[in-house]
What we know:
The chain is of the alpha/beta class and 199 residues long. Helix content is 53%, strand content 11%. The protein is built from 6 helices and 5 strands. A 5-stranded parallel beta sheet has the order 2-1-3-4-5, with helices on both faces. The longest helix is centred in the first third of the chain and has 38 residues.
Amino acid sequence: MLQHRIEQHFIDSADLKYQAAQVLSRPISAAVAAILASVTSGGKVLACGNGGSAADAQHFAAEFVGRFERERPELGAIALSTDSSILTAVANDYHFDQIFAKQVRALGQSGDVLLAITTSGNSANVLAAIEAAHERDMTVVALTGKGGGKMNALLRETDVHICVPHDRTARIQEVHLLTIHCLCDGVDAQLLGEQEGNP
């Protein structure tokens, strides 16, 4: 029984990835272009999310500052979920909804990109970060699921929305991780050229 349940998770995840490939390839490509334009002009990516999405933001920043699969110069990225002193001070002195927005206003500049990750599209602190990014004339790359939620109303035409066509959080997160790998690989491919033996 348990083994069958585990196998079903693998099957469901694989099925969603096959479905999502055609739907998401265009917005992921647009996100690569936006991020590439930023980092090649001296910009950076600020990434934020809660829970598993915070881990995804950190994962992205690590791949960017370090490397993905190939050696290349460091690229600017900061996960806004990692500084416990900032997070607790802002949450305590202001409101938890402002923990990312205040960092975006402090660190973000015109030409930077905000990578905003929320499976529901409804995380108040991520939505506030998007508003702050727009104040700073930043492009937003949004990773959501469940139809995009409240985020749909905030995004501009110049932003990129990568919305996983599913309602289950675990499945959405699995596709978000694959998307992050596609973003890193896409930027590297544009910077370094195609690599033999890989897509």
